[in-house]
Design a protein that fits this description.
heterodimer; A: mainly alpha; Ferritin; 12 helices; about 70% helix; B: mainly alpha; 13 helices; 2 strands; globular; binds fe (ii) ion
């Protein structure tokens, strides 16, 4: 794989996490547990989609075939999506939604911070905007997780169950394959071991304040970065891509 | 009795002098009740209105459209919050107000009981529904009750973006493929009459109107606002090449306004009475969100209480 190909793939991986997570968060719109959370969740969805758009546009440029952000979002089939399995997990109850975002935020913030120093100027510039947003996101999801853990018996149980269910998908966040190693070597991407250390520190601090238990690493999911997803991703795409697929070539 | 009479005279004098009524000021009970009803209906409309538009967030046809729609629906949630706060200044709690919505006791704008069937409906809702709402809200920026007027000023700033993005969706569709144009025309056909109904019954049949005008809660009648909306919107439709579904619509040189056909008030009353296409879905969705969110709200309260206790002990 050439360097440009690897950079294209790496950029898509970054983009797809945000694109799919923002889609999931958008599903809450109008159905949140309290109006303030409707606002907070749409806010996150907007931040994520904004970052995804920058990354997809850049990926299109790297590829050099004239594909736009929309071509990449709406016309790629399931096996070409490179998001982690974590972000495609269904919303579930509010504990699942918060835990899914918390685990992602605990990874996304140190990642964005590291990308500030990327040898790729464009990725560094995109990360520059993302860092501030990611700080807010992590604060929001941590605050709720602490409320749940140290709230009522029911909320504690729900939060623990969500953690136990979603923990396996954090494996996907930290798998380093050839593409990633090439990016590390080129100074584009950080070593994921470093991101994992920051992730672990955040998780341990927040979970201890939340009086929740950190699940033990059992079977850890992987494959998302190679386009091997769970069954739910196909349904996300069926919904998301419907109009572009039904009316090929139309402008909206 | 003379005291109340005096207070009422003072109150009316203040209104006539264009001074705002503030929460701590004396006000007639009927004024308070009328405002609580209107502001909470308005708040509920913002919140229920998120549902038909939220329906298309997952299917928005481009990332740009998806971001715009997310931002728009987020604004509506914010409007709901401002308005619930304005209602609270009149001595009614947000919980009570929301319970009245959930039990079906309180009303919200009937327009949101219609379904969004195609992407063009998102255009039509922004263009026509937000467009009609703006007419009313611009007037309410000068309403006599201070907190309501101030909430409206903030809301109006955002509403014009809502109307513009909807109109832009329609314009793009109208210039698109034949299928897209058909989609746009079909949406206009379905949303036109319900939008006109948003201004409420004709002045002759509007029970609260006279008092609302005297108290300057309202400053223009339903029929006046409706006429202005029609005059403006007919021209906008012409610009993008869509036709208004009203065979009786024609320009009247003498009045310098459009004449238009009869509104089907039986349909309006039917939807208000709960028999619109989506009344049940909307209330069910709100109740479901509320019920499933109960443990979340309880957890937040419990955690806040624990924190306060720890702070006290420290
Ligand atoms: Fe609205
Ligand atoms: Fe609004
Ligand atoms: Fe609006």
């Amino acid at each position: 794989m050439s360097q440009t190909n690897a950079l294209f793939t790496y950029t898509l991986r970054l983009a797809d996490d945000l694109l799919i997570l923002s889609h999931r968060l958008g599903e809450w719109c109008g159905h949140g547990p309290v109006l303030e959370e409707d606002i907070a969740l749409t806010n996150r969805a907007l931040d994520h989609i904004g970052e995804a758009r920058n990354l997809l546009t850049y990926a299109g440029e790297l590829e050099g075939k004239g594909r736009t952000e929309d071509d990449l979002a709406f016309l790629r089939p399931e096996r070409q999506f490179l998001n982690t399995k974590l972000v495609e997990q269904p919303n579930g109850d509010y504990a699942h939604t918060i835990v899914r975002s918390f685990l992602f935020d605990a990874y996304h913030l140190p990642l964005a911070e590291a990308l500030l120093k990327s040898s790729d100027a464009q990725l560094a510039a995109i990360a520059g905007k993302a860092v501030k947003e990611a700080q807010y996101h992590l604060r929001h999801s941590s605050d709720w997780l602490i409320r749940f853990g140290d709230g009522t018996e029911e909320s504690h149980q729900r939060a623990q169950a969500a953690l136990d269910n979603l923990w396996t998908f954090t494996g996907d966040l930290f798998t380093q394959d050839e593409v990633h190693q090439a990016m590390v070597k080129a100074g584009v991407a950080p070593d994921l071991a470093k991101i994992k250390a920051a992730f672990d520190a955040t998780v341990d601090t927040v979970l201890s304040e939340a009086t929740l238990n950190r699940p033990t690493d059992g079977f850890m999911a992987s494959g998302g970065r190679q386009g091997k997803h769970g069954e739910q991703l196909g349904f996300i795409l069926a919904e998301m891509q419907y109009l572009q697929r039904a009316y090929p070539g139309a402008t909206w | 009795m003379t005291d109340v009479k005096n207070l009422e005279d003072l109150f009316q004098a203040k209104i006539d002098a264009e001074q705002k009524i503030e929460p701590k000021d004396w006000m007639p009970e009927k004024y308070r009740k009328n405002l609580i009803r209107q502001i909470s209906q308005h708040a509920h409309s913002e919140v229920v209105g998120m549902l038909p538009e939220g329906n298309w967030i997952g299917r928005a046809p481009s990332l740009r459209r998806k971001a715009i729609l997310l931002a728009k629906v987020q604004d509506e949630a914010g409007h709901g919050l401002y308005l619930y706060s304005a209602a609270e200044t009149l001595g009614t709690s947000r919980e009570q107000t929301i319970d009245d919505l959930l039990s079906g006791k309180a009303k919200y704008s009937s327009i949101f009981n219609y379904p969004t069937l195609s992407w063009a409906d998102i255009g039509a809702v922004g263009w026509l529904v937000d467009g009609a709402a703006i007419m009313n809200q611009v007037m309410l920026c000068r309403t006599s009750y201070g907190p309501y007027a101030r909430a409206m000023v903030r809301i109006c700033k955002e509403e014009s973006f809502h109307q513009r993005q909807g109109y832009e969706i329609m314009a793009v569709l109208a210039q698109g493929t034949p299928e897209q144009k058909e989609m746009a025309q079909d949406a206009l056909n379905r949303w036109w009459w319900p939008s006109l109904m948003m201004f409420g019954p004709t002045d002759a049949n509007s029970p609260h109107s006279a008092e609302s005008m005297k108290w300057k809660i309202k400053r223009q009648s339903n029929d006046e606002l409706r006429q202005t909306f029609i005059d403006r919107t007919v021209q906008q439709a012409e610009v993008i090449g869509l036709s208004i579904p009203d065979p009786d619509l024609k320009w009247n040189e003498a009045t310098q306004h459009y004449d238009w056909g009869a509104i089907d008030w039986a349909e309006f009353n039917n939807v208000v009475a709960g028999n619109g296409p989506c009344n049940k879905e909307r209330l069910t969705a709100r109740n479901k969100a509320h019920d499933e969110g109960a443990w979340v709200r309880e957890a937040a309260l419990a955690h806040a209480a624990k924190k306060a206790k720890k702070k006290q002990a420290a």
